[in-house]
Amino acid sequence: MRIENHPILDLDRDEEKEITFTYKGKEIKAYEGETIAAALYAAGIRVLKASSKYERPRGLFCAIGNCSSCHMVVDGIPNVKTCITKVKEGMVVEEEVGKGDIVD
Ligand code: FES
Prior knowledge:
- By secondary structure, the protein is mainly beta.
- It has a single domain, classed as 2Fe-2S iron-sulphur cluster binding domain, sarcosine oxidase, alpha subunit, N-terminal domain (Ubiquitin-like (UB roll), Roll), CATH 3.10.20.
- Helices cover 7% and strands 28% of the residues.
- It has one helix at 36-42; strands at 18-23, 26-31, 49-50, 57-58, 71-74, 77-81, 92-95.
- The structure holds FE2/S2 (inorganic) cluster.
- Residues 60-63, 65-67, 69-70, 81, 83 line the site of FE2/S2 (inorganic) cluster.
């Protein structure tokens, strides 16, 4: 699900450039300017990481960069807040397990 109409924001998907990035080896389409988490959410992906203590699934929570629920490994860098990080063409995004260990 992706927001197509908004009462305040002027969203014109025809004007935005479509890009692709990789999540767990799968190509995901996104629009330039979207955050990684928004693009994953639009692709139906709700689990972004596993909690550090019990490895329970975590997804978007605050969506403003104040928690750690959306931490993922992006281009090999752990603990990236994907709710405030814009997606880029060719990015490689992986689920994070634990306290930021890189998943092979
Ligand atoms: S969802 Fe809270 S920092 Fe991203």
